[in-house]
Design goal:
Layout: H1 16-19, H2 24-38
Length: about 50
């Protein structure tokens, strides 16, 4: 965990990924791990 990034440190309008300084592959790994651990399907947001 990046110092100063506890749940209370994240503003409602702040990007979770940017706050934790995660690049795209790291964020994808996190999303996949969450999906596996929770048995929830995490889908990509539609792009316009």
């Amino acid at each position: 965990m990046v110092p100063g990034t506890g749940r209370a440190a994240l503003a409602p309008d702040e990007s979770f990924r940017e706050r934790l300084e995660m690049d795209s592959p790291d964020f994808l790994d996190l999303a996949e791990a969450l999906s596996e651990q929770t048995a929830l399907l995490l889908q990509e947001a539609p792009t316009a």
